[in-house]
Amino acid sequence: MKQPSSRRAFLKMTTSLALAAPMATPMQALASPGEAVVFADDRLRIEFDNQMRSRIALVTEGKPLWLTGFDAGETLSLVGGHDAILFALRDTTSQAINDRHGPGRQVRLAGLSGQGIEKTLTLHQYARYPGVAFMQVSYRNTTAKAVAATGWRNGAHRLLPPGLQPGGSVPAFWSYSGGTYADRRDWLQPVKAGFAQDNYLGMSSSDYGGGPPIADLWRREGGLAVGHLAPVPELVSLPVSEDKGGARLALTAERDVVLAPGGTFDTLETLLAVHAGDYFPALDAYRRIAADRGVRPPQPSAASFEPIWCAWGYERSCTPELIEATLPKAKELGLDWAVIDDGWQKAIGDWVVDPAKYPGREADFLKLVGGIRQGGLKPRLWYAPLAAAPGSDLLHDHTDMLLLSKEGAPQLVTWWNSFYLCPAYEPTRAHTVALVRKFLGDWGFKGLKIDGQHLNGVAPCYNPSHNHARPEESVEALPGFFRAIYEAAMAIDKDNIVELCPCGTAYSVYDFPYVNQVPASDPESSWQVRLKGKTLKALMGPSAPFAGDHVELSDGGDDFASTVGIGGIVSTKFTWPVDPKPKDSFLLTPEREAHWKKWIGLYRDKRLAEGLYRGDVYDIGFDKPEGHLVESGGRYYYAFYAPRWSGPLTLRGLPAGGRFQVRDYVEERDLGLVPSAHPVLTVSFEKSLLLEVSPA
């Protein structure tokens, strides 16, 4: 049922459609008395004026909370600066739909700009995703002359300042940004005066780039997320900025397009999502939408949740003797994995054992692997694909694998002083798969630690020997490169672990179907451990195997609470019985050993990493103290964090009815009973408080 109509006929048509196809989240697309077109469900309301500008509300208890004013959300940038911004609304249509996302409704609006550009805006909403709008924008040149465009923007809105401005140092807005930067900044940031971040999803420097294609702004009452739903990485931006007490976000792209007379151009499918609380519900909705489309992380095995010891505490000077001496202590503390980290190889790109450390070469290396197994631990191997050092045998023999810039120069991987290889070039993939088969098949490792900030994104490749149809093929091929690694690993043993650690970057969601463990990836604080855990549980699933990374990277180098409390896997790089480094020692002293043993024991006992992370319960930006909740085994595990706290805590998320016993499971003390109708405790703590709450 799809037929043009006047606004009055349109109102009649959509009303009859709503009656004919009732849904759990009824949707509307109708003309209001003020000449606005309304697109709404029971959580989201979008109104369009007669120039196709829109304003967005979060609906709570049936009432709209206006997050934005009327903005020109979808515009086309034209050569000469006379952009197509306002479009006189000419037509609207509506129809019921039922596709891979379930039942829903489609509304189409069409309008014409003063430059003769017709904009068609198609909106979808689904009962499965209340509060989410799917948007497709198409432009058509109705004039007799060609029109040149330089880019477009979708979902461009200014969020209005809060009605009641918070006092003190509390920001008006918080932001989630998916962009990657070499300074490894926080993914979550308060939006202070002058805040601006471009969030380009290509390369922001030679070896940093990529990230989730979604950005979010929220104030205390709720927020708005904007992103794209393309099936491959795209070179677009998600700029976020402060604006005179408000805040702006958008999806933008620079594209040189010439529209011939009658020619059309489609932008990327765009997502708009409103939410109460912080950004977690919007990212969780994005994950579920991607899963509907076949992009979902694999089901993790039990091995994905086992605690980890990594030899990186010894850094590149690590020797097999140092590893062998440490293994008994790792086993005694309750750890299951032993990771041989960077330094075992001859060179980056030459993935053969270093004869200076292993005089017997593979025989000595296999002896070490066998010793790990005999010690009751599982061996995992560090590996940095897509990088090759100058002077390596690989580059000497295979310069054809290089990813080259437009000028014909190699792309630098800074940390290892190496060059990028192209993931879209078949010989690169074949070489990588052969190595994975050697590591996991011939050498007997049970997992890979795939490492490097260069692995989150790559630049367009102009190597003429690759015969790319477009330079961007390298960007789009990176997920397929990881798929080849993952499938090779699973073909050997479905319980193998493929860990991806893209060193401080924002993670590419397109790689998630091909990894079964992700760490906090070189966190620079305990705050980063927790915000990365919350984000990755949103993007991968509430029981995703997220590791807090080496606890030595947390505040004080010993903050297990920030990993255990949010449902993370514990990991450590302690050294024992000696640490040959004169400084930056990670030696496990007797005092530290008691601390490590206690927390590793708590992790194994509670197994919260396998529980259900409830990221929608506490607002990580505005709630004080910072709160997290994990459900596991019929119990509720709360984690609160603050430098110092004394006062009431509300235990949100408990089921109605009955009373609940509260216990501090770290200090082993009972804190009494709370009723579900008023689950409030008055407590004091420093740094963290972890609670186990069970039905009484």
From TrEMBL:
CDD domains the UniProt entry points to: GH36
Keyword annotations from UniProtKB, A to Z: Glycosidase, Hydrolase, Signal
GO biological process entries: carbohydrate catabolic process
MF term (GO), any: alpha-galactosidase activity
Protein name in UniProt: Alpha-galactosidase
Xref: Pfam families: Melibiase
Secretion signal, residue range per the UniProt entry: 1-31
